Amino acid sequence: LRGNWGALWHALAMDHYHAGLIWNEATRAELRGALAREEAALRSRRQQLLHQTVEGRPLVVMSAWNFSEFEVVYPSLQQHLCVGGIYVRLLLDGADSAAVSKLPQPRELFNSLHHHLLASDSHLLAATTQSAMQQPSILGSTAVSIAEGRGGGSPQGTEEMQILCIRAMAAVYHAHAGAVGPCEGLEHLLRILDHTTRRPVRNHLLLLMAALLQPRSAQHLQQAQRVARANGYAVHNAGGTELLVDMAAAAHECTEPSTAAGGTNQTTTIHSHGAHSAGSGATALPGTVMSSAAHGAAIDGVTMPGLTSAGAGGLG
């Protein structure tokens, strides 16, 4: 569009709705309003300068627009979570199904999402800070809360935003594991997983753990396998193997109404023949049906690679 003003105005008149840009009639109106206010303020300032005098003589002052400090706030976009210039929901659920694979800086976005997740809720920060002062509380509050079915936590809006961050982290890692490299915040994520009592957050954290341990990256396969192995060692060294096994054991003893991913309510009853495969130790948790051919453990519908009685140590 450089130098092609006709094409620029045509593009500005169109609506755009993707991970990198939201532009519609509302944002155009907000831009027009901001420009009108800026122009009115500039005209008012010039009028003030025209009436200033020094010793009875008009004061000649050259005025100019300080465009470098001009900024537009778009209230209509406040409802959209934007991290690193990316609209997270549109990245995940937008019309472009390949948006995640096209990210130019996946590592920076992954780290920004992780930071945003930790900074989003004082409950998460308090949990991670408290855990940092102690040994990792492997079973901790999570397994107990699974068995007791407790909820609670932050307001719904904050929880939805946290889930968006976690979903985006998993999607980015699946597509760009080699570029992102080993996850430096695994210990924090495990602490959140250990302390949170919010089932949706916990479920998506488990999906993120699955992405970190077994990414589906088709590009740079060897790099993805290498970083997954490094993540496995980090999970094991941080007590993650014991945490996941304890969560599986606690959920195995739980029979309670649960909501499946499709939104239907069902009562979860875990039977011995479905909970453990012959010799595999795979455990089925609320809302999950496991067959004897299962190769991993499922926690709240999430299959965790390598978490079996014979291979629980495989995370390390």
From TrEMBL:
GO biological process, one term: regulation of early endosome to late endosome transport
Region annotated Disordered, chain positions: 257-279
InterPro entries: GRV2/DNAJC13, GRV2/DNAJC13_N
GO terms under cellular component: endosome membrane
Regions crossing the membrane: none
Compositionally biased spans, kind Polar residues: 257-270
Stretches assigned to the DnaJ homologue subfamily C GRV2/DNAJC13 N-terminal domain: 3-93
Name of the protein in question: DnaJ homologue subfamily C GRV2/DNAJC13 N-terminal domain-containing protein
